[in-house]
Amino acid sequence: MCGSVQFPKSNVCNNPDCDHSKEPEQILLSPEGTLYSYTIHRYDLRPPFDYHKAPYAIGAVELPEGIIVVGRLTTTDEEKLKIGMKVRLKVGELYSDGENAYLTYFFEPVEEVRK
Amino acid sequence: MTESAIVSAAITEWTASGEPTPSLMDRLASVAVEALRRAKLRPRDVDAVIATTTALPFDNPSFITISAQHFAHRLASKIGSHGMKCINVCGACASTAIAFATADAMIKSGYIKTALVVGADNSPRGFYYQAPSVLDADLATGYPHKVVGITNPSYWAMWARRRAYEMGKPVEDIKELMALVKVIHSEYGARNPYARYRKVFTVEEVLKSPVVCDPLHLYMIAATSSGAGAIVVADMERAKKLTDKPVKIAASAIGGPLSNEPAPRLVHFATAGGGRAVRPFTEWRRAIEEAYKQAGITAEDIDIMEVHDTNCFNTINWIDQAMGWEREETDKLIRKGEIRHNGRLPVNLSGGTASFGEAVQCQALMMIHELFLQLRGEAGERQATKKLRVGLCTAYGAYGSYGAIIVEKAW
Predict the structure, then answer these.
(1) Candidates A6, A36, A52; nearest CB to B149
(2) Contact flag A58-B139 (C-beta cutoff 8 Å)
(3) How confident is the model at residue A29 (pLDDT cuts 50, 70, 90)?
(4) How far apart are CA B309 and CA B83, in angstroms?
(5) Assembly ipTM
(6) pTM for this structure?
(7) Torsion over CA of B201, B206, B212 and B218, rounded to 10 degrees?
């Protein structure tokens, strides 16, 4: 087993040097990371994904496990975002259709930005 | 090893996507026959047809027609086939580069002598997306659009912002540079009868267009479009009998995903584990390095480039990767206008995808077509003024699909 980490979970390892001698294990990733980059989307997506309403922010977050994960950010205020800042995982509502609320993961800034 | 060369090339004018007529198969057949006519060949002379599959309207994401995956076979029977080998290739936006490299490898190995490489697309309008389907619910690539709302421009925008950050510059700097790239490409699109957009833009106009996802504005992103192209490739001995200006294929490299690629890749949730390379875009660079090695040349030997600009950041990034120099040098090259037809290193004199829009599964054929014209001195008002010998075409697509083609005058 090579100890390589991947997201999301998979039935096989994605490290080309792995000998695949053991089944992958599920682990919890660190809830905190560093903002690698970000952007703020200004267009709604089209159906059936039009529950993604603009503006919304996307970030790429470097985790201590050595991978970068893309996800939604909690703020679309550019003044509050800066590459290299610490962000923390937060589960929140993406949308609800009256019957169900659909959740996803967000990253939330945990420090004030001095630009 | 046998040498190979391009004998002829033909493309259609790129047009708005979504038009049902003429059918894609009709467009493909017209342009294929035109390329054969220019090579003075008949279908019987072709040993293999290598086609790319098409991006279809994905109103229903789980629906992919089997017919679109078999363009080579359908084209062969439509233009008349004596049993030519039919190969269908798919590699996102890099599809035709990979098809071209496949044809080249088959010729160089001696398996065939003449190939027809074709592609056609009528891409859906708007943001591309990958979505989970009943038959293929892949967590890694099927869900990011659905769960996070990420689009292809989101990745490009994040790369552009990161480049500015790593260079210690404000994001406005890369934004202005991308606008300038669009302006320069548009000057050549205006001179290209095959380009969909022939308007010359100003930096102000580009920066006034709506923000899609900062720092990317609408006019910095290629519109999905429709187009078709065909290229005849043959072994050098035959090519020299068919044309007095054969364009040698000095290299054709196929690049794939690298697990240690440090930059988040379309359309994945995350980079892979197991260690990361220091330099972002290692997998882009790798395809080019392989091509340089095949051709036995270095970056200094490149006289002209056609690079895959799905958005204006990619022109900048391809120059970074192809030249392998400090990124500051790329900025200077563009700001001084040295990528124009009379510059030190002309880039995208076709007008680029910025002027064509993108017929996804056909785009590399458009770029190789331009290099073919430029090396032969047949590019009219777009013709580079410097003496040309070697040209580089780079193609880039989602999922880690790349192609790097080097062509050279053989007369």
Answers:
(1) A52
(2) no
(3) very high
(4) 37
(5) 0.97
(6) 0.97
(7) -10
